[in-house]
Each structure stands twice: as structure tokens, then as C-alpha cells.
Write a structure and sequence with these properties.
2 helices, mainly alpha
Amino acid sequence: MASRSTSSKGKGKRGSKGSSAAAEEETEWAAWRMSKEWTTWTMKKAKVVAHYGFIPFIIYIGMNSEPKPQLSQLLSPI
């Protein structure tokens, strides 16, 4: 006697829940990927700003300290 297999295939509205869950998962994946791209882009820009802005920032801090040095005094090694 052949028995019918009891598969877990959904009927009716149950199938639409699966597609809704898949769409939600796809939306979450897209949001995660966009977040990763923005983070990478921001870190690359921050690296460039830190690279080119560090020395001018140090000079700016030195110019605003007491006693007020001249620019030539800040840049000279002695």
C-alpha cells in the first residue's frame, strides 16, 4: 500500500507569507549592503582628511597657544 507523503508545502495564503518574508529579507540585505558601502565611503574620506589635515591642524593649535609664536618659529626644527 502506497502512502501519501506529507510534504510541508503550503497551500493558499501560506505561500504568500513566504514571498513576503523573502521580500523582507531582500530589503534587509539591501539595507545592510548600502550601510556597508556608506561606511566604506566615509572611512576612505576620513582617511584622506586625516592624511592631509593633520599637519595644518597641529600648526593651527600651535598658533593659538600661549606664548604666541610666529609661523617661522613653529616650522623651524630648533
